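During the practical work, I worked with a single protein chain and the tokens that describe its fold, as given directly below.
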Amino acid sequence: MAQATQEFGEWPLKRLMTEVCGSGHKSADDLTRAQATEAFERVLADEPDPTTLGAFWLANRWKRNTPEELGAYVDVMCERVEYAEPDADPVDCGANYDGKGRTAILGVAAGAVAAAAGTPIVVHSGDRVPTQKQDAYKHVLDELGVHTELTPADSADMVDETGFGFYYQPAFNPAVDDLFDRRDMMGVRTFVNTVETLANPAGASVHLGSFYHLAFAKKVVDTFVESEFHDLDRVLMFQGMEGYDDVRPGYTKVAEWDAADGSDVEGDAGDVGSEGASFDDFEIETAEYGMDLEEDDLAVDDVAADSAEITEAVLAGERDGAFADAVAVNAALRIYAGGDADSIEAGLDAAREVIDDGTAHGVLEAMREF
């Protein structure tokens, strides 16, 4: 981790704890943008001692971060991210870096299907991220024989050549990757777990993510609005299995935000965020799209290996049933998010077509050859 050689302002983390955010979840004050910016700059410069850093992270967790704070944290991180934008404009899939421990990771298969249907897809993860350190995108791709430890420039080329690109966190976001040991010692998630999924290393105009509760989807939208670095056109989020970007079977909510709908609105950021006319949430039943199953139907024993085997079989047209239906629905949501289908139903038709004609498996083969 970099040593503290830069100069900061008047708000070391200990002072923030004492005077602003350290008094508990009911009485703590929120940080201003300037305070949050300085705080995360100090963290990434390895300036705070471990005790103060841990206390600051816990104080943020207890009081719950505002979009303004998260927007500042995102911007400090993004100043240190190595961006590599492909010629294509992909959908950025910001999955939970903690990974999964019980159910198959469907995003590689769904992403390949969406790419085959004409919607470029970007996914990103590291090796293991605190605190759960379960299987993520990288591990499924490794099992499939796809190169994952790529430079950002190579990842951008992968998008343009195959339609599906993987960005490796230690390569594009080394400042956050350097925090691994400190975060691992915490034993609980911090705001870093949220902001790292919003890095958007390909500079995509569309973000796809997941949430446990609708309030988190609103917070992510408002964080993007508050960010001075990001300028997204669209955000689509849904309730995902294990916090991942695989839609939860059965009744679930989908949240949709389009910046263009609020681009002429003047006033507070909230007017064009989750409180504006551009934000909508609606309910779906996945059974109505052919995904008539329970979450237990998608359980696996070895997440990485089994997910890779399922991906291969579904894309090759050699497996139907629960996993094939779930891949098709998740691909449909990606196609819809990218604006390449007017509805989830139309996205589903496109997804099933490229699975049936072998185009989707061709994307996987191209990924292996890259």
User: Anything to note?
Assistant: Residues 263-270 have pLDDT under 50 and may be disordered. Residues 147 and 368 are 7 Å apart (CA to CA).
